């Protein structure tokens, strides 16, 4: 409970100055609805930014939604209106009634800084005390070390509304509290290091998956209270699992209760539709030239990192922010002051966002969904980069899926779709995404994309996962991919968990789950597979040229070269015997992973746990292995650590 003195406001003159200057980073602690005490009376201080309004009042349960009972006062020339209302309690529903300069325009708006809301389709904001007793002290103390770029990061992307439903007795999605136990059990079983929630911020339309956000400071009330969501994050942290949140500063919906035309004018968005309307999503675009909008968005990001202990923020649709002509034809966009198509305000904002996040929360990471060749997305701002920690490698995703969708007989003609990635693999700090975008809108599930009969489809998918988890870069897989779901994702249905039951027809699904779990744990536990994820010293080709047999082989290494693994991929259904591969160490090489293992549903072909090297030069190395390459498989071998190694 805050005690207000003077005019009863938590807003100081410095707050107003920083807000109007665009440098306030903690507006969530100042604007909106904040319970407190004034002159011995408890109540709530309400404040809202509406500089072009002629009058603003607070309406809600406490005054029968009367527009005239609680008029607010303008605070100097800041554009902020405020009022202390006594005897307003926790959980009270409210909105702001705004009359614009046009006189005839009156609208009831939800609070842009609300920390809790009514459950959609209701749109009211709620007064809410965010107090919570955290228990994740060990995680927070070690987070900076856990999330370095030389540490493993494998992300399980999920949508809260369609991950798991409660069955016959609970014919609905699990809520935040119900989700914790089964989610932690699943992630622990699979060996993922992080979970990424598609946007949890409040949104009016479930079909937007959260990407059309109205409540930039409120977790959706569809699944519980803010404390319930904090409890979920807390439980995940105590289980050693990091939390990534999707965040959408690129656009917002035009629902009448939301940010659009907030005070009767284009306040948060550009007025000109060539700048302020997004043709792809039919939504409004933030005006990042306006200082107060920059403060609003930066404060939102800081709020989730501070209040909810979030470990990473993935910024959606960065490309749409960077280019003024994104998805626009000639004449439908306005060049910048230098005549170019670069959005200078967005560039400045993104650099500022990353600078402030890393300065205030040095243990977190930021990730950019950026689908173009914009340079230095994940390079520091002081060398001209945008400052993100990681960038989604959309090129890898498109090329790899295009390759794996081919019938194996055609793959030798498209070998470069696998090998080209090494040319640019370390130009950015990359995350390799097999995300929700690849399993919707008629694209089919990952399993259904694979060619061949059912056995070959599963073998191809196991090989795809093996390739992803042994290729340099952090990892991301969307829900359902781990069980080999046949149908594409539906946000209104649960994952088909029944595919893991004891039905004999589901053996391949259970085998895929075991395979992916072993892969994720191998990646997590073996430094050779993650220490050099974003460093060129962590990868070296053995042979990238065997297109005729659709075989590639490469080394993964720690940056100091003391640990290494050989990866060999045979991407045809032909078992290849007596296949020679050069290796940099003599002695016995143990087979650490074989995607064709019988327990995964494979044929069981392989090398009986490993093989010894022979002193016959191959692929530029003094020693070589003679291997059996199983069909449609990934093999991972490492030198026996009990024997002396010779890095030749």
Keywords:
about 650 residues; alpha/beta; Immunoglobulin-like; eight-stranded parallel beta barrel; six-stranded antiparallel beta sheet; 14 helices; 31 strands; about 25% helix; about 25% strand; disordered C terminus
Please explain how this structure is put together:
The protein is an alpha/beta fold. Among the domains are: about 1-125, Immunoglobulin-like; about 535-640, Golgi alpha-mannosidase II (Immunoglobulin-like, Sandwich). The chain is about 25% helix and about 25% strand. The protein has 14 helices and 31 strands. The chain has an 8-stranded parallel β-barrel with strand order 10-13-16-19-20-21-22-23, surrounded by 4 helices. Strands 24-25-26-31-28-29 form a 6-stranded antiparallel β-sheet. The protein has a 5-stranded mixed β-sheet with strand order 1-2-3-6-5, with no helix packed on it. Strand 1 (about 1-5), helix 1 (about 15-20) and strand 2 form a beta-alpha-beta unit. The relative contact order is 0.08. The model is unreliable at about 645-648 (pLDDT under 50).
Q: Ends: how far apart?
A: 67 Å
Structural class: alpha/beta
- Biggest sheet layout: 8 strands, parallel, barrel
- For CATH, the homologous superfamily of the domain at 2-126 is named as Immunoglobulins
- CATH topology grouping of the domain at 2-126: Immunoglobulin-like
Strands side by side in the biggest sheet: 10-13-16-19-20-21-22-23
Under CATH at level 1, the class of the domain at 2-126 stands as Mainly Beta
User: Would you identify the regions where 5 or more consecutive residues have pLDDT less than 50?
Assistant: 644-648
The beta-strand count equals: 31
């Amino acid at each position: 409970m805050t005690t207000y003195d003077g005019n009863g406001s938590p807003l100081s003159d410095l707050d107003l100055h920083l807000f109007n200057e665009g440098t306030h980073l903690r507006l969530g602690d100042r604007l909106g609805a904040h319970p407190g005490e004034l002159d011995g009376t408890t109540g709530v201080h309400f404040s809202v930014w509406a500089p072009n309004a002629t009058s603003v009042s607070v309406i809600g349960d406490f005054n029968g939604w009367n527009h005239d009972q609680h008029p607010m006062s303008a605070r100097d020339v800041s554009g902020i209106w405020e009022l202390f209302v006594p005897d307003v309690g926790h959980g009270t529903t409210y909105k702001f009634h705004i009359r614009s300069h046009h006189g005839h325009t009156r609208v009831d708006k939800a609070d842009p800084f609300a920390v809790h809301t009514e459950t959609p389709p209701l749109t009211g904001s709620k007064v809410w005390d965010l107090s919570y007793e955290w228990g994740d002290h060990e995680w927070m103390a070690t987070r900076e070390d856990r999330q370095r770029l030389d540490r493993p990061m494998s992300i399980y992307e999920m949508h809260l509304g369609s991950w798991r439903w409660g069955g016959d007795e609970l014919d609905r999605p699990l809520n935040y509290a119900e989700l914790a136990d089964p989610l932690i059990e699943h992630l622990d079983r699979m060996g993922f290091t992080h979970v990424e929630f598609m946007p949890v911020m409040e949104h009016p339309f479930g079909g937007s998956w959260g990407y059309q956000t109205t409540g930039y400071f409120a977790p959706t009330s569809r699944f519980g209270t803010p404390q319930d969501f904090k409890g979920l994050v807390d439980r995940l942290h105590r289980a050693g699992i990091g939390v990534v949140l999707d965040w959408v500063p690129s656009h917002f919906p035009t629902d009448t209760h939301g940010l659009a035309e907030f005070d009767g004018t284009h306040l948060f968005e550009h007025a000109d539709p060539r700048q302020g309307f997004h043709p792809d999503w039919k939504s409004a675009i933030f005006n990042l030239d306006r200082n107060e909008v920059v403060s609003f968005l930066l404060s939102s990001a800081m709020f989730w990192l501070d209040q909810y202990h979030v470990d990473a923020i993935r910024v959606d649709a960065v490309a749409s922010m960077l280019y003024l002509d994104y998805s626009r034809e000639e004449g439908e966009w306005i060049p910048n002051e230098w005549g170019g198509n670069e959005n200078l305000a967005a560039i400045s904002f993104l650099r500022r966002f990353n600078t402030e996040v890393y300065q205030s929360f040095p243990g977190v990471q930021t990730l950019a969904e950026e689908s173009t060749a914009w340079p230095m997305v994940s390079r520091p701002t002081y060398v001209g980069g945008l400052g993100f920690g990681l960038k989604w490698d959309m090129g890898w995703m498109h090329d790899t899926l295009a390759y794996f969708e081919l019938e194996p007989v055609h793959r030798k003609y498209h070998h470069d779709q696998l090998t080209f990635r090494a040319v640019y693999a370390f130009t950015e700090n990359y995350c390799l995404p097999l995300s929700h975008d690849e399993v919707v809108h008629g694209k089919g599930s990952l399993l259904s994309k694979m060619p061949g009969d059912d056995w070959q489809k599963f073998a191809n998918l196991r090989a795809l996962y093996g390739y992803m988890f042994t290729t340099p870069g952090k990892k991301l897989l969307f829900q359902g991919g781990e069980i080999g779901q046949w149908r594409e994702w539906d946000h209104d249905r649960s994952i088909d968990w029944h595919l893991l039951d004891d039905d004999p027809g589901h053996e391949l699904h259970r085998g895929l789950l075991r395979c992916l779990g072993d892969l994720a744990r191998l990646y997590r536990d073996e430094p050779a597979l993650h220490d050099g994820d974003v460093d060129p010293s962590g990868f070296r080709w053995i042979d990238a040229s065997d297109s005729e047999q659709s075989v590639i082989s490469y080394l993964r290494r720690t940056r100091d070269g003391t640990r290494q693994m050989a990866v060999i991929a045979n991407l045809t259904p032909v078992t290849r015997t007596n296949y020679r591969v050069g290796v940099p160490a003599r002695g016995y090489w143990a087979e650490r992973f074989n995607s064709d293992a019988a327990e995964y549903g494979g044929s069981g072909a392989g090398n009986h746990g490993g093989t010894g090297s022979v002193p016959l030069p191959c692929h530029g190395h003094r020693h070589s292995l003679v291997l059996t390459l199983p069909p449609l498989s990934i093999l991972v071998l490492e030198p026996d650590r009990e024997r002396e190694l010779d890095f030749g």
